[in-house]
TrEMBL record:
InterPro entries xref list: Palmitoyltrfase_DHHC (IPR001594), PFA4/ZDH16/20/ERF2-like (IPR039859)
Cellular component terms (Gene Ontology): endomembrane system
Alphabetized UniProt keyword annotations: Acyltransferase, Membrane, Transferase, Transmembrane, Transmembrane helix
Family: Belongs to the DHHC palmitoyltransferase family.
Keyword Transferase attributed: yes
Molecular-function GO term, any one: protein-cysteine S-palmitoyltransferase activity
EC number assigned by the record: 2.3.1.225
Regions crossing the membrane: 81-102, 108-136, 207-233, 278-298
Catalysed reactions, semicolon-separated: L-cysteinyl-[protein] + hexadecanoyl-CoA = S-hexadecanoyl-L-cysteinyl-[protein] + CoA
Species assigned in the record: Salvia divinorum
Locations listed in the record: Endomembrane system
Listed name of the protein: S-acyltransferase
Positions of the Palmitoyltransferase DHHC domain: 161-311
Length: 356
């Protein structure tokens, strides 16, 4: 009896002690802790469990326990390979296009050949120069601001600024760190591996001009290769007896005649010369590349029209701001005077996308 009573007392004492320890641990975890703000250097009292907090003086946002990933060497090699392939591909298109197309063009007349050669030179220079500007110039360097000292940083001086743990400097809501480039980019739209660079505020216009000139060039190549291929294509042997009866036969018979003509056309491709094979390849490649880049160009112009970038559209940076869907965003982007929109039709100007 005494043993049972002592055992019961010891168990009850243990339960009371464990409950007190849990309450003490919960009280300690709910206590605030003090830390330094990276923006102004002042002491900030935050909750013990808070990993993200905002300074009440300068407005800087602090994120703790950030895991850094500095393995960017492989990405840089990937971008360099992409840039080399793209430049080689464009030079191949220009050289083989001139070799395959212009004998047929100069056969029409000497003036026609010189005219189209001048167009080729202009399109090639515009495409290569815009590519080099978008690929080899900085995408957008963030402005230098004062931070880390209380007297120098005023109230709200770093509002909604965050600290980049990779570059060890502050970044505004319009600045994003690119892990492929290893630097912070102002007005970042996206990282394009084909130019080996980010698309930001400094080279966004060059990137759009590169897409525009490339789309125009591919359309021109499609037209010229199709015209040249018709001149050097081997003759197609048609079944004349079937073609005469096709108008009086059933739809099934007409479909068979069409099928025979298509097969005859492809059988004649066996006798194509090397120039003809190159023309077919240029036609298919130009049509494919032009279609893909047209979609990308339309997407980019759509975001510019609403005053956003692709990245801000994804993370909704400007969701609380009033954004205008207007052609003034396009004219402002390309550097045209604001009075240009006065000559545009009224249906190009729409209402605001968001209203407060």
């Amino acid at each position: 009896m005494d043993f049972a009573t002592s055992a019961g007392r010891s168990t009850s004492d243990y339960d009371i002690t464990q409950t007190e320890e849990d309450q003490l641990a919960l009280a300690c975890s709910s206590e605030d802790r003090e830390t330094n703000c990276w923006g102004c250097g002042l002491r900030v009292s935050v909750a013990a469990y808070a990993s993200v907090f905002k300074c009440g003086w300068c407005g800087a946002i602090t994120k703790e326990h950030v895991v850094k990933n500095d393995s960017i060497r492989l990405r840089r090699w990937r971008d360099r390979c992409f840039v080399t392939v793209v430049i080689s591909f464009m030079l191949f298109f220009i050289c083989t296009g001139v070799w395959a197309v212009y004998p047929a063009i100069f056969s029409i007349s000497y003036f026609c050949g010189v005219f189209h050669l001048a167009i080729t030179v202009i399109l090639s220079v515009c495409t290569l120069s815009s590519f080099c500007l978008s690929a080899f110039q900085p995408a957008g360097v963030p402005p230098i601001i004062i931070w880390g000292s209380y007297p120098a940083v005023g109230q709200g001086g770093l509002q909604n600024y965050a600290f980049c743990h990779y570059c060890s400097k502050p970044k505004s809501p319009l600045v994003h760190h690119c892990r492929s480039c290893g630097t912070c980019v102002l007005g970042m739209d996206h990282h394009c591996p084909f130019i080996g660079n980010c698309v930001g505020s400094a080279n966004h216009r060059s990137f759009i001009l590169f897409l525009l000139s490339t789309v125009i060039s591919t359309i021109y190549v499609v037209i010229m290769t199709f015209y040249s291929a018709l001149h050097i294509w081997p003759p197609v042997e048609h079944n004349r007896s079937l073609s005469r009866l096709s108008g009086f036969a059933s739809p099934v018979f007409n479909f068979g005649v069409l099928k025979e003509n298509i097969l005859a056309f492809f059988r004649s491709a066996v006798f194509l010369s090397a120039r003809g094979v190159v023309l077919v390849y240029l036609f298919i490649a130009s049509f494919s590349v032009g279609t893909g880049l047209s979609v990308l160009l339309w997407q980019q112009l759509s975001f510019i029209y609403v005053g956003k970038t692709y990245l801000s559209h994804l993370i909704a940076v400007d969701s609380e701001e009033v954004m205008e869907r207007d052609c003034q965003n396009l004219t402002r982007f390309f550097g045209f005077p604001s009075k240009t929109t006065a000559y545009l039709p009224s249906y190009f100007k729409s209402r605001k996308a968001h209203e407060k």
